[in-house]
């Protein structure tokens, strides 16, 4: 090879290297552009999928909340119906002193006591524990509780009350009389 040919090859190499650099730069920018487009598409897809998932979760939460509200309403209705049933039972039960329907009875159903014994609160508590009816211990149950003493064949009913309780009973009786 002559010297001229060598120089020609150098020029060709230099020019091709410049052109290759230009092509590489242009190719890299195109590649970068394509990569950024692909990344933006991926990001958009991820965002839409996440948004759809979040919307589904929100909808599920709303449904659960609606179910909870319905359950609360049902429970409130059930409680109200049970309270109404208790009131009806109070009316029809002889132990509550209400009117007794059916069986042609005209009595009020209130338990009558042959004697009210007023004693100290300590004694009254002891008698109540001894004479409690149906394992109840509240003041209202004390009003209904009966101690049956058998004296011969005669059964007497006693109500043991402390002085404070007797005052409360008198107030209740007086308020009922005034009605």
What is the end-to-end distance? 138 Å
Shape descriptor: rod-shaped
How many domains, in number, for the residues? 2
Q: Which value, in Å, is the CA radius of gyration?
A: 48 Å
Number of helices: 4
Main sheet attributes: strand count, strand direction, barrel closure: 3 strands, mixed
Number of strands: 3
Task: Give average pLDDT, whole number.
Answer: 67
What is the SS-derived class? Answer: mainly alpha
The largest sheet has its strands arranged as 1-3-2
Written as H for each helix and E for each strand, in order along the chain, the element string is HEHHEEH
Low-confidence stretches: 94-111, 133-156
- Which percent bin holds the helix content? 55-70%
What's the structural blueprint in terms of helices and strands?
Elements: H1 3-92, E1 115-119, H2 121-131, H3 139-144, E2 147-151, E3 154-162, H4 163-178
Parallel strand pairs: 1-3
Antiparallel strand pairs: 2-3
Question: Key terms for this structure?
Answer:
single chain; 179 residues; mainly alpha; 2 domains; 4 helices; 3 strands; rod-shaped; DUF4337 domain-containing protein
């Amino acid at each position: 090879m002559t010297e001229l040919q060598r120089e020609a090859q150098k020029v060709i190499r230099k020019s091709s290297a410049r052109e290759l650099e230009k092509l590489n730069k242009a190719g890299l920018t195109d590649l970068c552009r394509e990569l950024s487009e692909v990344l933006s598409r991926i990001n958009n897809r991820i965002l839409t999928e996440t948004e759809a998932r979040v919307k589904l979760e929100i909808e599920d939460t709303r449904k659960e909340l609606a179910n909870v509200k319905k359950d609360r309403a049902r429970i409130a209705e059930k409680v109200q119906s049970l309270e109404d049933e208790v009131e009806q039972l109070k009316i029809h039960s002889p132990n509550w002193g209400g009117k007794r329907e059916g069986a042609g009875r005209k009595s009020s159903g209130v338990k009558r006591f042959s004697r009210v014994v007023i004693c100290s609160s300590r004694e009254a508590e002891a008698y109540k524990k001894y004479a409690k009816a149906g394992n109840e211990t509240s003041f209202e149950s004390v009003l209904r509780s009966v101690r049956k003493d058998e004296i011969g064949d005669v059964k007497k009913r006693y109500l043991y009350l402390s002085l404070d309780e007797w005052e409360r009973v008198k107030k209740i009786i007086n308020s009922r009389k005034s009605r």
